[in-house]
Write a structure and sequence with these properties.
rod-shaped, about 170 residues, Tetrahydropterin Synthase, Chain A
C-alpha cells in the first residue's frame, strides 16, 4: 500500500512538474524572442556606427587629401511609410580632384550647391521606411555619394556620412 501511494505521489509530482515546465516555456519564450530582437537591433546599430566613418567607395582617401563640408541646415525628409527623418550629412571632398583644384568644389564654395545636395539626399532617403533606414544606413550613404559623384564629377566626392540621423515613426 505504501509503495503504491509513493508511486502515485511521484507520478503526480512528475505531471505537475511537466505542466509547470510547459507553462514557463510558453510564458517566457515570447519575452526571450523580444529580447533577442532588441539585442539584434542594438548590435546592428553598433555595426552601422562603426562603419559610418569609413570611406564609402573602394578607393582609399586619406584625411590629408579630403576636406569635409557640412551643409548649414538639417534636412527634414518624409519617409515612404509616413515617418520623418531629420538628417545632416557630411561630404568629404577630394582635394586632388580637378573641381577642387579649379576652386569650383571647395568647402567655401559648396554652399552654392546646397540645393543639388538636398535634392539628392531627399530623393534617396525618401525611398526608405523608418525600419529599413536604420538597417540600410550604409547603403543610403553609398547611394547619396554616387548621386553626388554623378552631379559634381566622379572624383570630387570621396565619401558621404550622416552627422545626424534621427527617425520619427508615423504617429
Amino acid at each position: 500500500m505504501k509503495k503504491s501511494i509513493i508511486t502515485l505521489i511521484t507520478l503526480v509530482l512528475v505531471l505537475v512538474n511537466l505542466v509547470l515546465t510547459a507553462l514557463l516555456t510558453f510564458t517566457i519564450m515570447p519575452e526571450t524572442k523580444k529580447a533577442n530582437e532588441l539585442i539584434s537591433k542594438v548590435a546592428g546599430a553598433i555595426d552601422l556606427d562603426l562603419s559610418a566613418g569609413q570611406s564609402t567607395s573602394g578607393s582609399s582617401t586619406s584625411l590629408e587629401t579630403t576636406e569635409a563640408y557640412t551643409p548649414a541646415d538639417d534636412m527634414t525628409i518624409s519617409l515612404s511609410d509616413g515617418g520623418v527623418a531629420l538628417v545632416k550629412i557630411v561630404i568629404n571632398i577630394n582635394k586632388e580632384s580637378d573641381g577642387y583644384k579649379a576652386g569650383t568644389y571647395t568647402k567655401d564654395t559648396m554652399n552654392t550647391y546646397d540645393g543639388v545636395i538636398q535634392r539628392a539626399v531627399n530623393d534617396i532617403v525618401s525611398q526608405y521606411t523608418c525600419d529599413n533606414f536604420n538597417e540600410k544606413k550604409q547603403d543610403i550613404q553609398d547611394q547619396i555619394k554616387d548621386e553626388l559623384a554623378n552631379s559634381f564629377g566622379g572624383d570630387v566626392v570621396s565619401a558621404v556620412g550622416f552627422a545626424k540621423a534621427v527617425i520619427q515613426p508615423k504617429q
